[in-house]
Specification:
527 residues, Rossmann fold, 8-stranded mixed sheet, 4-stranded antiparallel sheet, 13 helices, globular
Length: 527
Amino acid sequence: MESLWKEVKEEQGIRVKVDNWTNTFKTLYGYKPDISLFLDHTYLIILAKIDKYDIIIGNPPRVVMRSMKNKEYQNFLKKEVLNYHLLEDKDVHLFTQMELATLFFCKCADLYLKREGIIAFVMPRSVLAGTIHHINFRRFRNPPIKLVKIIDLEGVSPLFNMPSCVLIGLKDGTTKYPVLSERYAGELPDRNAEFAEAKAGLSIEVCKYLPPDFSAEPSYYYDKFKVGASIFPRSLYFVDIISRTNSMVAVKTSYEIYRIVKEPWKIVLEGVVEEDFLYATLLAWEIIPFGYIKLHPVILPIKEHFNEYGLLNSNELQRAGFTGAEEWLEEAQEIWRKRRTKKSEKRFPSLLYRLNYNNLLTIQNPTKGYIVLYNATGTNLVSYVVDKPSLSYLKVNGKEVKPRGFIVDVKTWFFETENEMEAYYLCAIFNSEIINGIIKPLQPKGLFGARAIHRRPLYFAIPKFDGNDNMHLKLADIGKECHEKVRAMKFTQKNNIRAEVRKKLNGVTVEINQIVSKILNIKMEGE
Protein backbone atom coordinates (compact mmCIF):
# COMPACT_ATOMS: atom_id res chain seq x y z
CA MET A 1 0.00 0.00 0.00
CA GLU A 2 1.14 3.49 -0.79
CA SER A 3 1.57 6.24 1.76
CA LEU A 4 -1.44 8.21 2.89
CA TRP A 5 0.54 11.26 3.88
CA LYS A 6 3.11 12.85 1.60
CA GLU A 7 5.57 15.45 2.87
CA VAL A 8 5.97 17.71 -0.15
CA LYS A 9 8.08 20.59 1.10
CA GLU A 10 10.32 21.45 4.02
CA GLU A 11 12.19 24.69 3.62
CA GLN A 12 12.77 27.94 5.52
CA GLY A 13 11.33 26.36 8.65
CA ILE A 14 7.88 25.91 7.08
CA ARG A 15 6.51 22.39 7.15
CA VAL A 16 3.71 21.57 4.76
CA LYS A 17 1.69 18.40 4.59
CA VAL A 18 -0.60 17.52 1.69
CA ASP A 19 -2.87 14.51 1.78
CA ASN A 20 -3.89 12.67 -1.35
CA TRP A 21 -6.66 10.69 0.46
CA THR A 22 -6.80 8.30 -2.46
CA ASN A 23 -4.38 5.72 -1.12
CA THR A 24 -4.72 3.43 1.86
CA PHE A 25 -2.88 3.22 5.02
CA LYS A 26 0.81 3.34 5.45
CA THR A 27 2.33 6.29 7.24
CA LEU A 28 5.32 8.39 6.35
CA TYR A 29 7.36 6.73 9.05
CA GLY A 30 6.71 3.14 8.11
CA TYR A 31 3.96 2.41 10.67
CA LYS A 32 1.27 0.24 9.14
CA PRO A 33 -2.12 0.17 10.91
CA ASP A 34 -4.04 -3.06 11.27
CA ILE A 35 -5.75 -3.29 7.88
CA SER A 36 -8.76 -5.05 9.43
CA LEU A 37 -9.69 -1.72 11.02
CA PHE A 38 -9.40 0.26 7.79
CA LEU A 39 -11.51 -1.08 4.97
CA ASP A 40 -11.20 1.71 2.42
CA HIS A 41 -9.88 5.24 1.88
CA THR A 42 -12.77 6.82 3.73
CA TYR A 43 -11.39 5.74 7.10
CA LEU A 44 -9.88 8.24 9.52
CA ILE A 45 -6.19 7.67 10.27
CA ILE A 46 -4.40 8.44 13.52
CA LEU A 47 -0.63 8.33 12.92
CA ALA A 48 1.62 6.52 15.37
CA LYS A 49 4.09 9.42 15.34
CA ILE A 50 2.55 12.90 15.34
CA ASP A 51 4.39 15.88 13.87
CA LYS A 52 3.07 19.40 13.79
CA TYR A 53 2.91 21.39 10.55
CA ASP A 54 2.50 25.02 9.57
CA ILE A 55 0.15 24.25 6.69
CA ILE A 56 -2.17 21.32 6.02
CA ILE A 57 -3.85 21.03 2.64
CA GLY A 58 -6.36 18.24 2.17
CA ASN A 59 -9.20 16.73 0.20
CA PRO A 60 -10.93 14.47 2.73
CA PRO A 61 -13.55 11.87 1.77
CA ARG A 62 -17.05 13.15 1.10
CA VAL A 63 -19.02 10.37 2.70
CA VAL A 64 -21.92 10.48 5.16
CA MET A 65 -21.56 8.45 8.35
CA ARG A 66 -24.43 6.09 7.50
CA SER A 67 -22.31 4.77 4.62
CA MET A 68 -19.79 3.28 7.04
CA LYS A 69 -20.59 -0.43 7.27
CA ASN A 70 -18.15 -1.52 9.98
CA LYS A 71 -20.10 -1.27 13.26
CA GLU A 72 -16.98 -1.12 15.44
CA TYR A 73 -15.53 1.69 13.38
CA GLN A 74 -18.87 3.49 13.31
CA ASN A 75 -18.94 3.46 17.12
CA PHE A 76 -15.41 4.87 17.14
CA LEU A 77 -16.48 7.68 14.81
CA LYS A 78 -19.50 8.44 16.97
CA LYS A 79 -17.26 8.90 20.02
CA GLU A 80 -14.94 11.14 18.03
CA VAL A 81 -17.85 13.26 16.79
CA LEU A 82 -18.94 13.78 20.40
CA ASN A 83 -15.35 14.41 21.57
CA TYR A 84 -15.02 17.24 19.05
CA HIS A 85 -18.50 18.55 19.96
CA LEU A 86 -19.65 18.25 16.37
CA LEU A 87 -22.81 16.88 17.96
CA GLU A 88 -24.06 16.96 21.53
CA ASP A 89 -25.39 13.87 23.33
CA LYS A 90 -28.98 15.00 22.77
CA ASP A 91 -28.37 15.23 19.01
CA VAL A 92 -26.68 11.88 18.52
CA HIS A 93 -29.64 10.75 16.41
CA LEU A 94 -28.24 13.06 13.70
CA PHE A 95 -24.97 11.12 13.55
CA THR A 96 -25.86 9.14 10.42
CA GLN A 97 -26.29 12.41 8.47
CA MET A 98 -22.90 13.83 9.45
CA GLU A 99 -20.23 14.28 6.78
CA LEU A 100 -17.08 12.33 7.58
CA ALA A 101 -15.10 15.26 6.13
CA THR A 102 -16.03 17.45 9.12
CA LEU A 103 -14.38 15.01 11.52
CA PHE A 104 -11.30 14.80 9.27
CA PHE A 105 -11.06 18.60 9.33
CA CYS A 106 -11.21 18.83 13.12
CA LYS A 107 -9.00 15.81 13.81
CA CYS A 108 -6.28 16.89 11.39
CA ALA A 109 -6.23 20.46 12.69
CA ASP A 110 -6.08 19.16 16.26
CA LEU A 111 -3.33 16.57 15.78
CA TYR A 112 -1.13 17.92 12.98
CA LEU A 113 -1.45 21.70 12.84
CA LYS A 114 0.79 24.10 14.74
CA ARG A 115 -0.58 27.10 16.59
CA GLU A 116 -1.53 29.82 14.08
CA GLY A 117 -1.04 27.23 11.32
CA ILE A 118 -3.15 27.24 8.16
CA ILE A 119 -5.61 24.53 7.19
CA ALA A 120 -7.15 24.44 3.70
CA PHE A 121 -9.54 21.57 3.00
CA VAL A 122 -11.81 20.82 0.08
CA MET A 123 -15.19 20.10 1.70
CA PRO A 124 -18.73 19.19 0.67
CA ARG A 125 -20.62 22.44 0.23
CA SER A 126 -23.44 21.03 2.35
CA VAL A 127 -21.46 21.99 5.47
CA LEU A 128 -22.25 25.63 4.61
CA ALA A 129 -25.94 25.06 3.87
CA GLY A 130 -28.99 24.56 6.08
CA THR A 131 -27.81 21.40 7.77
CA ILE A 132 -28.68 21.34 11.47
CA HIS A 133 -26.17 18.55 12.11
CA HIS A 134 -23.33 20.84 10.94
CA ILE A 135 -24.21 23.83 13.13
CA ASN A 136 -21.43 23.04 15.62
CA PHE A 137 -18.89 22.44 12.85
CA ARG A 138 -19.59 25.93 11.47
CA ARG A 139 -18.67 27.35 14.89
CA PHE A 140 -15.09 25.96 14.59
CA ARG A 141 -14.61 25.75 18.36
CA ASN A 142 -12.89 22.41 18.86
CA PRO A 143 -10.14 22.88 17.98
CA PRO A 144 -10.53 26.67 17.76
CA ILE A 145 -10.18 27.77 14.14
CA LYS A 146 -10.58 31.22 12.65
CA LEU A 147 -12.29 30.70 9.30
CA VAL A 148 -10.76 33.41 7.10
CA LYS A 149 -11.89 32.51 3.59
CA ILE A 150 -14.29 30.30 1.65
CA ILE A 151 -13.77 29.35 -1.98
CA ASP A 152 -17.22 28.39 -3.23
CA LEU A 153 -17.01 25.98 -6.18
CA GLU A 154 -20.71 25.21 -6.56
CA GLY A 155 -20.88 26.98 -9.93
CA VAL A 156 -17.91 25.14 -11.45
CA SER A 157 -18.35 22.08 -13.65
CA PRO A 158 -17.19 19.48 -14.29
CA LEU A 159 -15.44 19.14 -10.96
CA PHE A 160 -16.43 16.80 -8.13
CA ASN A 161 -19.37 14.45 -7.82
CA MET A 162 -21.12 16.85 -5.49
CA PRO A 163 -21.03 20.63 -4.91
CA SER A 164 -17.84 21.54 -3.05
CA CYS A 165 -16.01 24.40 -1.41
CA VAL A 166 -12.61 25.11 0.13
CA LEU A 167 -12.42 26.21 3.76
CA ILE A 168 -9.28 28.10 4.81
CA GLY A 169 -8.64 28.81 8.47
CA LEU A 170 -6.05 29.64 11.14
CA LYS A 171 -5.63 27.48 14.22
CA ASP A 172 -6.27 28.96 17.68
CA GLY A 173 -8.37 31.81 16.36
CA THR A 174 -12.08 32.62 16.67
CA THR A 175 -14.46 32.49 13.73
CA LYS A 176 -16.55 35.63 13.34
CA TYR A 177 -19.17 35.94 10.62
CA PRO A 178 -19.57 37.16 7.95
CA VAL A 179 -16.55 35.54 6.33
CA LEU A 180 -15.01 36.43 2.96
CA SER A 181 -16.28 34.13 0.20
CA GLU A 182 -15.10 33.88 -3.41
CA ARG A 183 -17.68 32.26 -5.67
CA TYR A 184 -16.18 30.66 -8.76
CA ALA A 185 -18.41 29.88 -11.75
CA GLY A 186 -17.85 28.52 -15.24
CA GLU A 187 -17.22 25.48 -17.41
CA LEU A 188 -13.91 23.63 -17.31
CA PRO A 189 -12.50 21.80 -20.36
CA ASP A 190 -12.26 18.79 -18.04
CA ARG A 191 -12.19 18.18 -14.29
CA ASN A 192 -8.40 17.74 -14.24
CA ALA A 193 -7.60 20.93 -16.17
CA GLU A 194 -4.39 22.81 -15.35
CA PHE A 195 -4.89 25.86 -13.13
CA ALA A 196 -3.97 28.41 -15.79
CA GLU A 197 -6.35 26.79 -18.27
CA ALA A 198 -9.14 26.53 -15.71
CA LYS A 199 -8.74 30.11 -14.50
CA ALA A 200 -9.28 31.50 -17.99
CA GLY A 201 -12.79 30.05 -18.12
CA LEU A 202 -13.93 31.02 -14.63
CA SER A 203 -15.51 34.14 -13.18
CA ILE A 204 -15.10 35.15 -9.53
CA GLU A 205 -17.64 36.96 -7.37
CA VAL A 206 -16.42 38.29 -4.02
CA CYS A 207 -19.06 38.33 -1.30
CA LYS A 208 -19.68 37.64 2.39
CA TYR A 209 -20.89 34.34 3.84
CA LEU A 210 -23.27 34.13 6.78
CA PRO A 211 -24.36 30.72 8.05
CA PRO A 212 -28.10 29.96 8.16
CA ASP A 213 -29.75 31.38 11.27
CA PHE A 214 -31.67 28.82 13.34
CA SER A 215 -32.15 31.04 16.37
CA ALA A 216 -35.74 32.03 15.55
CA GLU A 217 -38.67 30.12 17.00
CA PRO A 218 -39.79 27.30 14.68
CA SER A 219 -43.35 26.68 13.60
CA TYR A 220 -46.02 25.58 16.08
CA TYR A 221 -46.20 22.47 13.87
CA TYR A 222 -42.45 21.67 14.04
CA ASP A 223 -42.78 18.64 16.31
CA LYS A 224 -46.26 17.69 15.10
CA PHE A 225 -45.26 16.57 11.63
CA LYS A 226 -43.91 13.02 11.37
CA VAL A 227 -42.30 10.91 8.69
CA GLY A 228 -44.28 8.05 7.12
CA ALA A 229 -43.90 4.28 7.39
CA SER A 230 -41.11 2.21 5.80
CA ILE A 231 -43.20 0.07 3.47
CA PHE A 232 -40.14 -1.95 2.40
CA PRO A 233 -39.33 -4.12 0.56
CA ARG A 234 -41.94 -2.53 -1.69
CA SER A 235 -42.46 -5.61 -3.85
CA LEU A 236 -43.88 -7.46 -0.81
CA TYR A 237 -46.66 -4.91 -0.24
CA PHE A 238 -47.42 -2.83 -3.35
CA VAL A 239 -49.91 -4.64 -5.58
CA ASP A 240 -52.03 -4.49 -8.68
CA ILE A 241 -55.62 -5.64 -8.11
CA ILE A 242 -56.54 -8.34 -10.63
CA SER A 243 -60.14 -9.04 -9.63
CA ARG A 244 -62.63 -8.82 -6.77
CA THR A 245 -65.07 -11.45 -5.51
CA ASN A 246 -67.25 -10.77 -2.50
CA SER A 247 -64.86 -9.51 0.18
CA MET A 248 -61.71 -10.98 -1.42
CA VAL A 249 -59.32 -9.40 -3.92
CA ALA A 250 -56.92 -11.22 -6.21
CA VAL A 251 -53.65 -9.29 -6.20
CA LYS A 252 -50.18 -9.43 -7.68
CA THR A 253 -46.99 -7.46 -7.01
CA SER A 254 -47.33 -4.07 -8.69
CA TYR A 255 -45.75 -4.13 -12.15
CA GLU A 256 -44.77 -0.50 -11.78
CA ILE A 257 -42.98 -1.23 -8.51
CA TYR A 258 -41.39 -4.40 -9.91
CA ARG A 259 -39.80 -2.33 -12.67
CA ILE A 260 -38.09 0.11 -10.29
CA VAL A 261 -37.01 -2.12 -7.38
CA LYS A 262 -33.54 -3.63 -7.40
CA GLU A 263 -32.29 -7.08 -6.61
CA PRO A 264 -32.73 -9.03 -4.42
CA TRP A 265 -36.30 -7.69 -4.22
CA LYS A 266 -37.25 -8.08 -7.86
CA ILE A 267 -39.86 -10.72 -7.06
CA VAL A 268 -43.54 -11.25 -7.81
CA LEU A 269 -46.07 -12.30 -5.18
CA GLU A 270 -49.58 -13.43 -6.10
CA GLY A 271 -52.52 -14.30 -3.91
CA VAL A 272 -56.13 -13.77 -2.87
CA VAL A 273 -56.40 -11.54 0.20
CA GLU A 274 -59.26 -10.20 2.32
CA GLU A 275 -60.28 -6.61 1.53
CA ASP A 276 -59.72 -5.77 5.22
CA PHE A 277 -55.98 -5.53 4.48
CA LEU A 278 -56.16 -3.46 1.31
CA TYR A 279 -54.88 0.07 2.00
CA ALA A 280 -53.83 3.00 -0.15
CA THR A 281 -50.66 5.09 -0.14
CA LEU A 282 -48.90 7.74 -2.21
CA LEU A 283 -45.28 7.73 -3.34
CA ALA A 284 -43.70 11.09 -2.56
CA TRP A 285 -42.55 11.75 -6.11
CA GLU A 286 -46.15 11.37 -7.32
CA ILE A 287 -47.44 14.18 -5.09
CA ILE A 288 -48.16 17.33 -7.09
CA PRO A 289 -49.35 20.74 -5.82
CA PHE A 290 -52.82 20.16 -4.32
CA GLY A 291 -53.06 16.70 -5.88
CA TYR A 292 -51.40 13.45 -6.84
CA ILE A 293 -50.70 11.36 -9.93
CA LYS A 294 -51.63 7.88 -8.74
CA LEU A 295 -52.97 6.19 -5.63
CA HIS A 296 -51.19 2.88 -4.91
CA PRO A 297 -52.90 -0.16 -3.34
CA VAL A 298 -50.86 -1.96 -0.68
CA ILE A 299 -51.48 -5.14 1.32
CA LEU A 300 -50.68 -4.54 5.00
CA PRO A 301 -51.28 -6.95 7.94
CA ILE A 302 -52.67 -4.28 10.26
CA LYS A 303 -55.90 -3.39 12.03
CA GLU A 304 -57.24 -0.28 13.68
CA HIS A 305 -56.58 -0.22 17.41
CA PHE A 306 -58.07 2.87 19.09
CA ASN A 307 -55.97 5.84 17.84
CA GLU A 308 -53.26 3.78 16.17
CA TYR A 309 -52.70 0.66 14.13
CA GLY A 310 -51.85 -2.79 15.46
CA LEU A 311 -49.74 -5.33 13.58
CA LEU A 312 -51.08 -8.86 13.03
CA ASN A 313 -48.67 -11.78 12.79
CA SER A 314 -49.44 -15.06 11.00
CA ASN A 315 -50.88 -16.77 14.08
CA GLU A 316 -53.21 -13.86 14.81
CA LEU A 317 -54.39 -13.76 11.21
CA GLN A 318 -55.05 -17.51 11.27
CA ARG A 319 -57.00 -17.37 14.53
CA ALA A 320 -59.14 -14.55 13.14
CA GLY A 321 -59.89 -16.58 10.01
CA PHE A 322 -58.00 -14.34 7.58
CA THR A 323 -56.38 -17.19 5.65
CA GLY A 324 -55.66 -15.11 2.54
CA ALA A 325 -53.71 -12.47 4.43
CA GLU A 326 -51.99 -15.16 6.49
CA GLU A 327 -50.74 -16.98 3.37
CA TRP A 328 -49.57 -13.69 1.85
CA LEU A 329 -47.65 -12.74 4.99
CA GLU A 330 -46.13 -16.22 5.34
CA GLU A 331 -44.81 -16.15 1.78
CA ALA A 332 -43.53 -12.59 2.19
CA GLN A 333 -41.83 -13.53 5.47
CA GLU A 334 -40.09 -16.49 3.81
CA ILE A 335 -38.83 -14.31 0.96
CA TRP A 336 -37.59 -11.78 3.53
CA ARG A 337 -35.85 -14.48 5.54
CA LYS A 338 -33.97 -15.80 2.48
CA ARG A 339 -32.99 -12.48 0.90
CA ARG A 340 -32.33 -10.08 3.79
CA THR A 341 -28.79 -9.02 4.64
CA LYS A 342 -26.90 -10.18 7.75
CA LYS A 343 -27.38 -6.73 9.24
CA SER A 344 -31.14 -6.86 8.63
CA GLU A 345 -31.27 -10.35 10.12
CA LYS A 346 -30.05 -8.96 13.45
CA ARG A 347 -32.12 -5.79 13.37
CA PHE A 348 -35.35 -7.24 12.01
CA PRO A 349 -35.88 -10.89 12.96
CA SER A 350 -39.43 -10.60 11.63
CA LEU A 351 -40.71 -8.87 8.51
CA LEU A 352 -43.19 -6.99 10.71
CA TYR A 353 -40.29 -5.40 12.60
CA ARG A 354 -39.04 -4.02 9.28
CA LEU A 355 -42.50 -2.82 8.26
CA ASN A 356 -42.97 -0.97 11.54
CA TYR A 357 -39.42 0.41 11.74
CA ASN A 358 -39.29 3.04 14.50
CA ASN A 359 -43.06 2.53 14.96
CA LEU A 360 -43.61 4.74 11.92
CA LEU A 361 -46.64 2.71 10.89
CA THR A 362 -48.39 2.06 14.19
CA ILE A 363 -48.20 5.72 15.29
CA GLN A 364 -50.42 6.76 12.38
CA ASN A 365 -53.91 7.57 13.57
CA PRO A 366 -56.80 5.88 11.71
CA THR A 367 -59.39 8.12 13.37
CA LYS A 368 -58.09 11.45 12.01
CA GLY A 369 -60.01 12.55 8.94
CA TYR A 370 -57.40 14.70 7.18
CA ILE A 371 -53.69 14.22 6.46
CA VAL A 372 -51.43 17.02 5.22
CA LEU A 373 -48.59 15.55 3.15
CA TYR A 374 -45.39 17.03 1.76
CA ASN A 375 -42.35 15.46 0.10
CA ALA A 376 -39.27 14.66 2.21
CA THR A 377 -36.82 15.12 -0.65
CA GLY A 378 -36.67 16.89 -3.99
CA THR A 379 -35.88 20.29 -5.36
CA ASN A 380 -39.25 21.90 -4.71
CA LEU A 381 -41.77 21.54 -1.92
CA VAL A 382 -45.22 20.16 -2.85
CA SER A 383 -48.17 19.38 -0.63
CA TYR A 384 -51.53 17.59 -0.76
CA VAL A 385 -54.38 16.93 1.68
CA VAL A 386 -55.71 13.39 1.97
CA ASP A 387 -59.42 13.62 2.75
CA LYS A 388 -59.88 10.15 4.26
CA PRO A 389 -63.71 10.23 4.40
CA SER A 390 -63.67 10.91 0.64
CA LEU A 391 -60.70 8.69 -0.21
CA SER A 392 -60.81 7.66 -3.87
CA TYR A 393 -61.89 4.16 -4.78
CA LEU A 394 -59.46 1.79 -6.51
CA LYS A 395 -60.77 0.61 -9.87
CA VAL A 396 -60.74 -3.08 -10.80
CA ASN A 397 -62.04 -4.18 -14.19
CA GLY A 398 -64.55 -1.38 -14.26
CA LYS A 399 -65.57 -1.93 -10.63
CA GLU A 400 -64.52 0.07 -7.61
CA VAL A 401 -62.88 -1.19 -4.42
CA LYS A 402 -62.67 1.11 -1.42
CA PRO A 403 -59.36 0.88 0.45
CA ARG A 404 -59.58 0.21 4.16
CA GLY A 405 -57.62 3.35 4.93
CA PHE A 406 -54.62 5.46 3.98
CA ILE A 407 -51.04 4.84 5.18
CA VAL A 408 -48.34 7.49 4.73
CA ASP A 409 -45.13 6.32 3.04
CA VAL A 410 -41.66 6.94 4.48
CA LYS A 411 -40.54 9.49 1.87
CA THR A 412 -43.33 11.78 3.03
CA TRP A 413 -43.87 14.05 6.05
CA PHE A 414 -47.40 14.27 7.41
CA PHE A 415 -49.70 15.91 9.93
CA GLU A 416 -53.06 14.43 10.95
CA THR A 417 -56.01 16.54 12.02
CA GLU A 418 -59.77 16.47 12.42
CA ASN A 419 -59.96 20.12 11.33
CA GLU A 420 -60.57 20.26 7.58
CA MET A 421 -59.75 23.97 7.35
CA GLU A 422 -56.50 23.55 9.25
CA ALA A 423 -55.41 20.90 6.75
CA TYR A 424 -56.09 23.07 3.67
CA TYR A 425 -54.52 26.10 5.38
CA LEU A 426 -51.24 24.25 5.89
CA CYS A 427 -51.29 22.75 2.41
CA ALA A 428 -51.69 26.19 0.83
CA ILE A 429 -48.72 27.52 2.81
CA PHE A 430 -46.50 24.60 1.76
CA ASN A 431 -47.47 25.06 -1.90
CA SER A 432 -46.64 28.77 -1.80
CA GLU A 433 -43.57 30.16 -3.53
CA ILE A 434 -42.79 31.96 -0.26
CA ILE A 435 -41.99 28.81 1.72
CA ASN A 436 -40.39 27.09 -1.27
CA GLY A 437 -38.13 30.11 -1.71
CA ILE A 438 -36.99 30.59 1.87
CA ILE A 439 -36.02 26.93 2.32
CA LYS A 440 -33.74 27.00 -0.76
CA PRO A 441 -30.63 28.36 1.03
CA LEU A 442 -31.12 25.69 3.69
CA GLN A 443 -31.27 22.73 1.31
CA PRO A 444 -28.06 20.75 0.76
CA LYS A 445 -27.30 20.32 -2.93
CA GLY A 446 -26.25 17.36 -5.02
CA LEU A 447 -25.32 17.06 -8.66
CA PHE A 448 -28.89 17.79 -9.68
CA GLY A 449 -29.54 20.72 -7.38
CA ALA A 450 -31.30 21.13 -4.04
CA ARG A 451 -32.43 17.84 -2.52
CA ALA A 452 -33.39 17.37 1.14
CA ILE A 453 -36.53 19.08 2.49
CA HIS A 454 -37.53 17.17 5.64
CA ARG A 455 -38.32 19.62 8.49
CA ARG A 456 -37.00 22.72 6.73
CA PRO A 457 -40.43 24.24 5.96
CA LEU A 458 -41.15 24.00 9.69
CA TYR A 459 -38.08 26.01 10.72
CA PHE A 460 -40.15 29.11 10.03
CA ALA A 461 -42.87 30.49 12.25
CA ILE A 462 -45.95 29.06 10.54
CA PRO A 463 -48.61 29.85 13.16
CA LYS A 464 -51.23 27.49 14.49
CA PHE A 465 -54.42 27.64 12.48
CA ASP A 466 -56.88 30.12 13.96
CA GLY A 467 -60.49 29.72 12.88
CA ASN A 468 -61.16 33.33 13.86
CA ASP A 469 -58.40 34.73 11.64
CA ASN A 470 -59.72 35.88 8.26
CA MET A 471 -56.40 35.37 6.49
CA HIS A 472 -56.15 31.81 7.80
CA LEU A 473 -59.70 31.07 6.67
CA LYS A 474 -59.13 32.66 3.25
CA LEU A 475 -55.99 30.58 2.75
CA ALA A 476 -57.86 27.40 3.73
CA ASP A 477 -60.68 28.19 1.27
CA ILE A 478 -58.18 28.74 -1.54
CA GLY A 479 -56.36 25.50 -0.65
CA LYS A 480 -59.60 23.53 -0.86
CA GLU A 481 -60.58 25.17 -4.16
CA CYS A 482 -57.15 24.33 -5.60
CA HIS A 483 -57.64 20.66 -4.74
CA GLU A 484 -60.90 20.67 -6.70
CA LYS A 485 -59.25 22.41 -9.67
CA VAL A 486 -56.32 19.99 -9.79
CA ARG A 487 -58.68 17.00 -9.49
CA ALA A 488 -60.44 18.16 -12.64
CA MET A 489 -57.26 18.86 -14.64
CA LYS A 490 -56.16 16.89 -17.68
CA PHE A 491 -52.40 16.83 -18.05
CA THR A 492 -50.56 17.12 -21.35
CA GLN A 493 -47.13 16.20 -19.95
CA LYS A 494 -45.79 13.05 -18.34
CA ASN A 495 -42.43 14.12 -16.97
CA ASN A 496 -43.14 17.53 -15.46
CA ILE A 497 -46.71 17.52 -14.21
CA ARG A 498 -45.80 19.64 -11.17
CA ALA A 499 -44.66 22.50 -13.41
CA GLU A 500 -47.83 22.16 -15.51
CA VAL A 501 -50.01 22.39 -12.39
CA ARG A 502 -48.16 25.46 -11.16
CA LYS A 503 -48.60 27.13 -14.53
CA LYS A 504 -52.33 26.43 -14.58
CA LEU A 505 -52.70 27.71 -11.00
CA ASN A 506 -50.47 30.74 -11.54
CA GLY A 507 -53.14 33.35 -10.79
CA VAL A 508 -54.23 31.60 -7.60
CA THR A 509 -50.61 31.13 -6.53
CA VAL A 510 -50.07 34.90 -6.60
CA GLU A 511 -52.92 35.35 -4.13
CA ILE A 512 -51.58 32.53 -1.91
CA ASN A 513 -48.14 34.14 -1.90
CA GLN A 514 -49.55 37.50 -0.85
CA ILE A 515 -51.44 36.00 2.10
CA VAL A 516 -48.54 33.76 3.21
CA SER A 517 -46.09 36.69 3.07
CA LYS A 518 -48.36 38.63 5.44
CA ILE A 519 -48.89 35.69 7.81
CA LEU A 520 -45.14 35.01 8.03
CA ASN A 521 -44.18 38.70 7.85
CA ILE A 522 -41.91 38.08 4.86
CA LYS A 523 -41.54 40.72 2.18
CA MET A 524 -42.18 39.55 -1.36
CA GLU A 525 -39.76 40.40 -4.14
CA GLY A 526 -40.46 43.86 -5.46
CA GLU A 527 -42.08 45.15 -2.27
